[in-house]
Please model this.
Amino acid sequence: MKFGVPLKTKHKEILMYCVSMALILFLLKWLEVHFIVFNYRLDLFIGAIAILFTVLGIWLALKLVKPKVETRIIEKEVYIDNSTQTEIDEQEITKLGISKRELDVLNLMATGFSNEEIAEKLFISLNTVKTHASNIFLKLNVKRRTMAVEKAKRMKIIH
Model:
């Protein structure tokens, strides 16, 4: 203490000076932020809405683009013929009332011929082939050629 000022007083002045500078700086910063917020409040509001809609758009795009994983189980009856018997079941043919010509048309369907080709092979008109095919569908209770062939093979009407 050579200068005549007590040590505590010297530190108090420095401390008070620092605290007052901090308060003034805080006040100036608060006024600056206050000034910016009031002068640019519309811009800040529009910016906040833009950010909100950007985030919402990204989220929605990710939801729409993401593929939906869907598992479907398809069941179909599969008939396996374990017998080595390849004989045609004549009783089933008579029970269903299938004529000889309808059986010929069914056999040619099973080999993959079209209606026009069946008509040429059997020397009958196209309309006759279509009539025989519709009669076969009714008698076998099916809707398509493939179903008719599959059911006829299962019932041992054709090979």
